[in-house]
């Protein structure tokens, strides 16, 4: 899977959430404050994820390197 495909898959819920919240706010089911709070929350989430140092594409941090055993290289 390419990086672009992974990025699209991860952002799909966000792309669906904002129009859904807008439709619910227009219908009067959801308060308008929620609609305006969602982008702020998503921006903070993206900022905290971007600040994660050393994270790999799987979300796991790489472990320490181990010395090889049993032979000279």
Low-confidence stretches: none
Oligomer: single chain
CA(first)-CA(last) distance: 34 Å
Structure annotation, total helices: 2
Helix content: 55-70%
Sheet bearing the most strands, described? none
Coarse shape:
elongated
H/E order of the elements? HH
Describe this structure as you would to a colleague.
It contains two helices and no strands. The protein is mostly helical. The protein has a domain at 3-48. The radius of gyration is 20 Å and the shape is elongated. The two termini are 34 Å apart.
Helices and strands in order:
Elements: H1 3-27, H2 32-50
Nutshell version of this structure?
This protein has helices at 3-27, 32-50. The chain is an all-alpha fold and 73 residues long.
Describe this protein with a few key phrases:
73 residues, mainly alpha, elongated
């Amino acid at each position: 899977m390419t990086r672009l495909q992974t990025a699209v898959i991860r952002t799909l819920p966000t792309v669906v959430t904002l129009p859904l919240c807008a439709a619910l706010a227009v219908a009067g089911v959801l308060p308008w404050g929620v609609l305006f709070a969602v982008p702020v929350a998503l921006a903070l989430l993206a900022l905290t994820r971007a600040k994660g140092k050393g994270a790999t594409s799987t979300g796991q941090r790489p472990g320490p390197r181990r010395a090889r055993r049993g032979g000279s290289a």
